[in-house]
Please model this.
Amino acid sequence: MRIERVELRRISLPLVTAFRTSTGAQYHRDVLLVRVEGPDSEGWGECVAMNEPLYSAEYVDSAHAVTRAHLLPRLLGRRLTPEEIGPALAAVRGHPMAKAALEMAVLDAELTAQGRSLAAYLGAVCDRVPSGVSVGLPGPGGVPELLDTVAAHLAAGYRRVKLKIEPGFDIEPVRAVRERFGPDLALQVDANSAYTRADAGHLARLDPFALVLIEQPLAEDDLAGHALLSGQIATPVCLDESITSAVVAADAIDRGACSVVNIKAGRVGGYLEARRIHDVCRARGVPVWCGGMLETGLGRAANLALAALPGFTLPGDISASDRYWRRDVTRPFVLDGGYMALPGGPGLGVRPDPGFLAEVTTSVEEITPSG
Model:
């Protein structure tokens, strides 16, 4: 398609409850949405960059600025396929989340025009995926509050629980959850790089709890440390922030730095690179699962399409809309028997609700080839 016009829209959505990790707490999401227009179609993309540069160096203001000043000038007015978006933007170093939002919008527009779903394009093999839930660090209620939260999510039907942990809040909360909910609960933990190599002995104390995995225990640039840790603990090590491309994924697996990979399309520059990482991991017999970044229904629809690929053998962090939002910008995604259904239909399969989108919009910027 020829990209004739782009809309950069900022929206603000309050979270149902604060989401706390070892890097900080979020109470609302300031989201950058991208809408591209061609001669006979339009498409939507969502940038998953957070409000502050805590999960990664990218944050929503920087994504907006680099999109406007450096990415769009390389796309506007050009006739490009989705596969050509990445190469067209390669000269701009970094900023994978901003690039992923543009790729997502072009994929949505192109596939909508073709009457083809994103799931079919990526290679999905099912029409629903098992859903897990990510539980942030609790507030003042501590472990009792955490137990109540987990109980509510299990009552809702989630098939896997992930706990955020940090030094000082790890062994005891995991013990409490395992004792309360029993050995059959699929339970994993996420450290968001909160530990160091010196903590290996401490992290080994998680081994008796039969966790599915421990996610990103060490710094994102410490593949060697993760390889050492993998030999010191029985709990499988999963990498998240460390995995930025298919090349890095292959290197991490071959080094023995991980035995599971979390794939987030925004973190790796888009759904096409995410599919390449999936292919690398599947070829090496390494299971993958789809991570979440507090997406709206637009990003949630795209993540469901990705998670329907055959290598995604573990439940991902693709929760129902009401896990995070009182009202989503698209029709709500609901949990059904522990599964989330792919939306169906061409492209993403969903569109924003115009009235609600207008209510939550904080700014709109329209950009054309003429400026």
